[in-house]
Design goal:
GO molecular function: acetate-CoA ligase activity; AMP binding; ATP binding; metal ion binding
Enzyme class: ligase
Shape: globular
Strand order of the largest sheet: 5-4-17-16-18-19-20
EC number: 6.2.1.1
Number of helices: 21
Largest sheet: 7 strands, mixed
Radius of gyration: 24 Å
Catalytic activity: acetate + ATP + CoA = acetyl-CoA + AMP + diphosphate
CATH class of one domain: Alpha Beta
Distance between the termini: 33 Å
Low-confidence stretches: none
Keywords: Acetylation, ATP-binding, Ligase, Magnesium, Metal-binding, Nucleotide-binding
Amino acid sequence: MSSQIDHVFDETRVFPPSPEFAAAAVAQPEIYSEAATDREAFWAEQARELHWHTPFTQVLDWTTPPFAKWFADGELNVAYNCLDRHVEAGDGDRVALLWEGEPGDERRITYAELTDEVKRLANVLEGLGVGHGDRVAIYLPMIPEAVASMLAVARIGAIHSVVFGGFSADSLRSRIDDAGAKVVITADGGYRKGKASPLKPTVDQALADRGEGEQNTVEHVLVVKRCENEIDWDDERDVWYHDAVSAASDAHDAQAFPAENPLFILYTSGTTGKPKGILHTSGGYLTQASYTHRVVFDLKPETDVYWCTADIGWVTGHSYVAYGPLANGATQVMYEGTPETPQQGRWWDIIQKYGVTTLYTAPTAIRSFMKLGREIPQRYDLSSLRLLGSVGEPINPEAWIWYRDVIGGGSAPIVDTWWQTETGAIMASPLPGITATKPGSAQVALPGISIDVVDDDGNSVGVGGGGLLAITQPWPSMLRGIWGDPERFVETYWEKFATHGYYFAGDGARFDEDGDLWLLGRVDDVMNVSGHRLSTAEIESALVAHEATAEAAVVGASDETTGQAVVAFVIIKESYLKAHSPEGLALQLRGWVGEQIGPIARPRDVYIVGELPKTRSGKIMRRLLRDVAEGREVGDTTTLADTAVMSVISAQVK
């Protein structure tokens, strides 16, 4: 099958940074030439922004690809870099976390206070028998203890596996088993949509006999008291977090570990069968997480209030909540709950209250706000925002423009970032003081990163053509393997372009005539219609460009005539429905796509729906929509934020 993806959608609007923003930006244009002149020297310079207990002398060891080693003879402590060194530099009173719980409770935690908590927790973990190389599972809501837990595990050279708090007992159990976790850190519950969502009971279920005997590696469960919901207690196994931490010593020396010491395992969401545990190590990962956080978000740590809305259960929460911002001494907002609780303007209220300057969120959230209408954010003062970011999937141009105009006041630059759990940190993004941004485009590889769009044989397709996104040179935060399965690591990511030594990202992409990068969605989501390979992302963009549409998801369904047919599921804006009847709208939208792109992309079916099936990280589960479009029984819905949504959609389609 050809890897060529037909390009059908053009975007010509361009927004250069203001002269004032450009002049004061952290990254200046020469950063690109510096990285291109000597890539390894450039990465060494970024790494030296960290504190090394033992300085490295070797930058990259690529003698046994695809198994990379970065800064391998250097030693550092990740938690020391995120905490102690800021306190020692005199910034202990700077606020690290501006935390707000969903019910409205709040905490301001300084770097000194967070350092104290992490030292105590490190002592608690060591007292529970956790040592260098042991695994700790973390199953917590978005509370400060989640960040403290990650850092305490890192501090003692152990490995954390954070499992998103929305996962089921079976999903949790499979991840605990695969990692061989010794301790689980959880909470009685967390607040979500106005009520306590229990977590400890799920841990109890996960550790119990689920058909193959009780879980046998976990020795202790450390429990944060958050909601005070009723829970079962095992005196021999369970330990109250606050009791143990408050009683522990606040003295703990941060021991240095080799740069290639494993830092965390993160299981990719939506996996089937055996969990796929992505392994990241310490020195290279922290180098790229801190560097990208600094230059992509133009960080001014003394004055910025940064907010990444991702949960720590996903890689975005690892790199741009826990590690990147804290390594850079940033002040950040952390919010426990959902965007619409107790009212639809909760996020904007938080931005106004804390004077947030940088917002990093997902396109699906932006489109949800579009659906509700601009009058909600317009009730709040969002003038503190100076930079906006997007992550998780390609952002369609109309959502990009809405984000810039309504949330960014028509002037805040948008950094649309492309990266993956596997890459560990941002790989492609505009740099806000340099790049003239283009709505919907990830634009350029960051300085120090090498990417290309290639055909099935690994040959560059050049400008204008669509193909497969490949990373052509090793990078510091790259995954070091799949936990316990090196063969699967090679087969999944490196086998396709083994002769070139390229990493295959699994995404379709193209370079436009200006050389800017456009993501076309997962290659699995590309449709083959009458011999044309069409990107779901481009058709979704066309649908959302219609005045009625808030959000759209497109899938390919089997079709006797065309091989595959385009089927679209569309959510309509509330403001449109107030003024218009939805009657005939599906037909209108079919015609609209034909006008915008061409007859080949016109959907066979357009279904108007109230919601789309999403995971709690905001990703649309297109495979479930494919089941509906092809009349099959809907598959596993356990990872959905709302498991009832597929029943509603199935009924609407019938």
